[in-house]
Design goal:
The chain is α/β, with parallel strands linked by helices. Among the domains are: 193 residues, Ribosomal Protein S5, domain 2; 171 residues, Rossmann fold. It contains 22 helices and 18 strands. It has a five-stranded parallel sheet. Helix 6 links the parallel strand 8 and strand 9. Helix 2 packs across helix 3, helix 4 packs across helix 10 and helix 8 crosses helix 21.
């Protein structure tokens, strides 16, 4: 046998398309050629694979080797192709039985001594395998021409072999059998024992997924915030309806403190959402505490590409890493204006599409924006002490760094005053995150039962369907639109916030009280 096929996955954006590695041995001077748009890390794998094969006790074929990575027009990067390339070479040189490879997919980086090292994107690979199996199952259920035996063979589960360090991560995907291996030798022993049961090689063990936490714990709590009842109320509304919020106040008034507590009052992620978030962090090679709501606090020197994603081969940015969680922008006017303007479209669409000459990627961006700013350059405009010395033109120039279209997309505008020391010392302990979270979860349940999504995600047509106002509430909104110069977008956002306030109050109807409170959060 001088030809072998091995199945693996590449990672493109957040997806993991299948890659077929074809290995062919032919006569000629010894050489190894890799074709099929390999990136630098893949091209360099030839040296790692050669040493790993020799140090694992196998022979490296002294012939001409051609390795094709199909499909040929799909770019392949990363060292995750080391293991499948090595397996393909061993199968093509008759050191492994090629027949046993069809039921497996392989990913893993090889060390020179043959050990397997952790790679990025293993969770995305496992999710792609499951999605492909579900698609095949659905297709077969509609194909009446397939007999029962053919249908069973068509949906035979694929086993995924990964480095042991990736086993716990990849095994979180239910329905995909994940085998963890420490070395190339261990993988080959397993395959040889399948081809010849009489061989007493040690088989790879199936990785058992660790149980998901019943309730996610956080290191911080909303009880740390003393006073600021108005701001705490707005934070609860933002959590209940998925709304964006802007805190404005002097330094030290508690803006950052409250923003960092928002994830603690949000409902737990569903299993599918937790997998989606973990998969994103796996691709980005970032640490993630499984099951928690992401909280991304970025510095004001960040670039537009780092914020929304991009590059020659588009990678996820901060807004995608904040998907299903919170993106916090502190000192909002200090950000470059062009950086802030790129947030306008993702705030509406809940996703970001990045186009390049040879590719187009769409990343999820369903995050809650929380921003904080000072009222003026020195931060003390309006303070009762009168210590602000900023001139009116300086304050206007500072506040004009934020465009009207961006501010119009923020649902809640909250002024956070500085608290006197005496009030801080005598302030009673506020509600804990768990106490507030109970009300937020109840409001979420109302929204899921009514419309299967949070209020902030309602489209204009869905607003007309699910948000009905009485005559007095309509008149109140008409008057407010004249006085506050509400745009059509601002009008819809007021309705969404009013619906959330009614949900928190366990009210089926939206009353004038709910509309009035929602309008109070639109005055900038």
């Amino acid at each position: 046998m001088s030809f072998a096929q091995v199945y693996t996955r590449s990672v493109v954006g957040l997806h993991a398309p299948k890659v077929i590695i074809e290995v062919h041995l032919s006569q000629g001077l010894p050489a190894l050629t890799i074709v099929g748009l390999p990136e630098a890390a893949v091209r360099e794998s030839k040296d790692r694979v050669r040493s790993a094969i020799l140090n694992s006790g196998f022979q490296f074929p002294n012939r001409r080797l051609t390795i094709n990575l199909a499909p040929a027009d799909l770019p392949k990067d990363g060292a995750r192709l080391d293991l499948p390339i090595a397996i393909g070479i061993l199968a093509a040189s008759d050191q492994l039985d090629p027949e046993v490879l069809s039921g497996f997919e392989f990913i893993g980086e090889l060390a020179l001594n043959g050990n397997l090292r952790q790679v990025t994107g293993s969770l995305a690979v496992a999710r792609a395998i499951k999605a492909e199996q579900l698609a095949v199952t659905s297709s077969n259920s509609n194909e009446r021409r397939l007999d029962e035996q053919q249908a069973v063979e068509a949906v035979t589960p694929v086993k995924l072999i990964v480095p042991m360090d990736n086993g716990a991560e990849a095994s979180r995907v239910e329905g995909v059998e994940v085998l963890g291996a420490q070395s190339l030798k261990a993988v080959c022993d397993h395959l040889q024992s399948l081809a010849n049961p009489s061989i007493s090689n040690e088989s790879l063990a199936v990785v058992t997924p660790s149980p998901a936490p019943q309730h996610v714990g956080y290191q911080v709590d909303l009880a740390d915030v003393k006073g600021q009842h108005h701001a705490r109320r707005a934070l609860e509304i933002a959590a209940a309806g998925g709304h964006s919020i802007l805190f404005t106040g002097p330094p030290g008034s508690g803006k950052t403190l409250m923003a960092s507590r928002l994830p603690t009052i949000l409902p737990d992620l569903s299993d599918e959402d937790a997998l989606e978030v973990a998969s994103t962090y796996s691709v980005a090679d970032s640490d993630y505490d499984y099951g928690t709501r992401p909280f991304r606090q970025v510095h004001h020197t960040i670039s537009a590409v780092a914020l929304v994603g991009g590059g020659s081969r588009p990678k996820p940015g901060e807004i995608t890493l904040a998907n299903k969680g919170v993106l916090f922008l502190d000192e909002l006017p200090e950000f470059d204006r062009t950086v802030l303007e790129v947030l306008r479209q993702p705030l509406e669409a809940k996703q970001i599409t990045i186009s390049r000459a040879n590719s187009q990627m769409t990343f999820p961006a369903n995050f809650q924006l929380v921003a904080a700013m000072n009222p003026c350059p020195c931060g003390y405009d309006g303070d009762t002490s009168g210590r602000c010395r900023c001139r009116p033109e300086q304050i206007k120039r500072y506040q004009d760094k934020l465009s009207g279209p961006l501010l119009d997309r923020i649902d809640l505008h909250i002024t956070v005053p500085a608290l006197p020391i005496a009030d801080l010392q005598n302030a009673q302990a506020g509600e804990t995150s768990e106490q507030v979270r109970v009300r937020v979860i109840a409001a979420h349940k109302h929204q899921m039962q009514r419309q299967q999504k949070v209020n902030n995600e309602l489209s204009p047509s869905e607003i007309d369907k699910y948000i009905q106002l009485g005559e007095s509430e309509q008149q109140l909104l008409q008057l407010a639109q004249q006085r506050l110069n509400l745009s059509a977008r601002g009008y819809h956002r007021v309705l969404r916030v009013a619906r959330t306030i009614a949900d928190l109050a366990d009210s089926v109807d939206i009353t004038s009280v709910h509309v009035s409170e929602a309008l109070s959060y639109r005055s900038k």
